[in-house]
Amino acid sequence: MTQEKSASALSMMFVVVGNMLGAGILALPVNLCAAGFYPSVAATLLMWVLMTYTALIYSEQKSLTTNENADLPTFFHQELGNAGKWVTIVANLIILYGVLVAYLCGISAIIMSLQSALPKSVVMIIYFALVTGMTAFGMKMMKKCTPYMVTIMWITFGALVFMVVPDVSAPNLEALDWTYIPAGLPVLLMAFHFHNIIPSICRTLEHDRRKIRTAIIGGTTIGMVMNITWLLVVLGALPLSNPETHIDLITAFGKNDPATIPLEQLLQTPVFTYVALIFAVVAMSTAFMANGTALLSFMRDLISSNFGINNKVVVWCLSFLPPLLVGLLYPDIFLVAINLVGGVGECIIFGILPGFIVWKYSPEGSIRKYSGMVLIVCFAAVLIIELGQEFGLLHLSPNVEYWTHHTR
C-alpha cells in the first residue's frame, strides 16, 4: 500500500516538474543577470514559497478539483461574480497564448543558432506542426510520456551543468544590484508555473491530501533546486558584459535569447550545443503539450458556453493559430512574452486571486487570513511593476553602457 502511494505521488511529482521546466528556466539567468547571483537566489526562494502556497490553496478548493468539467473562470464566477469570471478568462488567455509564443520563439532561436540554411519562419512552422501534432493525443499521452521526458531533462540538465562548471568564475558571482530584482520577478513566476494542472493532479491522486501535498511540494522543490543550480552556472560562467566578443548576458538580454545561446558561443563544443538543444526541445515541448492541451480544453469550454460553437476545427484554429501568427510576426520576443505571461496573467490567476480566496474564507485575525493579504500585496506589486514597464512608466531593465563601464 505504501509503495502504491509513493509511486502515485511520485508520478504526479514528475508531471509538476515537467510543467515547470520550460521557457522559464532558460530565461531566468538572462532576466536576472543585472541583479546578480545572490539577490537572484533570494528572489527565487521567495517565489518558490509563494507559488507553492498558492498551488496548495487551489488544491484545497473542492468545487474546482472534484468536477472534471470545472475550470478557473467558472470557479471564480461562483466566488467573485461576473467580473471575476472575465478577469480570469483574459488572464488565462494571456498565460496560455503567451507561453506558446515563448516556446515557439525560444526553440526557433536555439535551432537558428545551430544553422542558417533555413529561414526562422520555416523552422518555427516545422516545430509548430510537430508539437501541435503531439498535443492532439491529449492528457493520456502526457501522463505516459512525462516521466520519461522529465528523466531526459534531468540527464541533459546534469550534463549541461557538468560541462559549464569548469568555466564558473567567482568574480562573475560577486556583482549584485538589488534594484533590478523587481524586473526579474515575472520570469520567476513563469519558472514556477504549473497551477493549471492542479485539478488533474487532485483527481488522479483521488483527493488524497497527503499525496497531493507531496506531489506539489516535492515537484516545486526539485524545480527550485534546478533553477538555483542553473543560475549558479550561467551567472558564474558568463560575464555581464564583454564589449570585445559580445558573448555575455547583457547582449543575450538585448537579443531576447535563451541562456543556452551565449553558453554555446562561450564553450564552442558540439557536445554542449547538441545536449543544450535536446534539453531545450524536450523541456519546452513537454510544457507546450501540457499548456496546449489546457488551451484546447479552455477554448472549447469558452466558445461553447459563451457562443454555442462546438466545432473542433474552430477550437483548434482559435487555440493554436494566434500564437503561431504572433511568433511569425515577432520572432524575437522570447523574453517579452515570458515577462507578460508572468507579470500579468500568472500574477492575477496564480497570485492575487488565490490570495482573495484565503482572505475571504479564513477566520478574522488568523495567520491564514493575514497570509492571504500578504499574497495579494506581493503579487499586486509585481503586476504594477510589470504594467509600469510595459507602458513605459518604469525602466528597470539593465543598461548595457552602465554594465560595460562598471563590470570587470
From TrEMBL:
It comes from the Bacteria. Pfam families: Trp_Tyr_perm. Its main location: membrane. The chain crosses the membrane at residues 12-30, 36-58, 86-111, 117-136, 148-166, 178-194, 215-238, 271-292, 313-330, 336-358, 370-388. GO terms for molecular function: aromatic amino acid transmembrane transporter activity. InterPro entries: Amino_acid_transport_2, Trp_tyr_transpt. Gene3D superfamilies: Amino acid/polyamine transporter I (1.20.1740.10). Keywords: Amino-acid transport, Cell inner membrane, Cell membrane, Membrane, Transmembrane, Transmembrane helix, Transport. GO terms for cellular component: plasma membrane. It is a multi-pass membrane protein. It is found in: Cell inner membrane. One of its GO terms (biological process) is amino acid transmembrane transport. This is Aromatic amino acid permease.
